[in-house]
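Let us work through a complete example step by step.
Step 1: write down the sequence.
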Amino acid sequence: MNKFVFSTVADVVVGPGTSAQVGDMAVAMGISRVLVVTDAGIVQFGLLDKALQSLKSHNIEYSIYADVVADPPESVVMDAVAKARDFKCDCVIGFGGGSSMDVAKLLAVLINGKQLLADLYGVDKVTGGRLPLIQIPTTAGTGSEATMVSIITTGETTKAGVVSRTLLADKIILDASLTTGLPAHVTAATGIDAMVHAIEAYTSKRLKNPLSDMLAREALRLLAANISTAVKQGDNLEARGAMLLGAMLAGQAFANAPVAAVHALAYPLGGNYHIPHGLSNSLVLPYVLRFNAPAAAELYAEIAGLIMPGKLLPDDPTAVTEMLADHFLVLAADLGLQTTLRQMDIAENDLPKLARESMLQQRLLINNPREVNLNDSLAIYRQAY
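Step 2: predict the structure and record it as tokens.
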């Protein structure tokens, strides 16, 4: 067995209503002043109420930063840092989707003022510590609560990542009751996003290992078995809980065996057209699977039965990969998602620009089981068009 390092969070609390335990958790951690990082929708729909009441009942002071937006720019991160410094918080809670949790991670590091945000981009650039960090996801998709990665928009269409074990949370709370009000299309897109995380972790070229493989397989089992129910029966707590757990397990997997070409080609779609990240992944996934088949078909065949339970699979791994690509096209359509770039009002003459921008994501492309060049990327976009 090759040497490997596996890192993850220390504590995970799972179950409907568990966000009401955050006050007990904070007391046990010796915390007295909490900044909650979230977005306006979370506040508007009352999803914070149980957690805030829990903090209040334990005499823990809190302040809310609710200006996080999708694909958060650097200005949002620094605005949150200023709010945290003014409030003099001693703990950060990320509460919401991946954007809120990503901002919370960086805020917890930047508040001490020892590094600039620009100095953090890349792998293992964080040199100092951070404030205590609790993550409470309200979508089952990004897995950000369990990862050591924070993605920030750095320009009009460009994103950059901070990757450091320092960003791993101290505590995670998975409360399925927070996800029952999600619109069906958000549940669908974030669910496929989580499946992409597990698939890419399982086939990651560089850091795939037995622990990440185990987590990716169980994530796929949970996600595939429950995504349709969660989308079509939004108040089904069992399905919602399974999706939350699956998304976190996928996050733990890809935090250690990083994602690859699907994400590299998805990022320009989000950056240029503000397509939600999960949907961006879904749009290119089938075609990246087919492209990767010469290098990864056997690995895809190993997990295909988890993704397509009950289907009779051929002995030929390449044929199985074709079935898998077709399955995700059918699944996306069945869940009400768009399946082509044309449906997203993307001009065909924009595809070369998207391909060029995808090549900037070498941090991700080096993990892909098959090397991707500019012409390959353009061909994938054309197939997805």
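Step 3: interpret the result. The mean pLDDT is 96.
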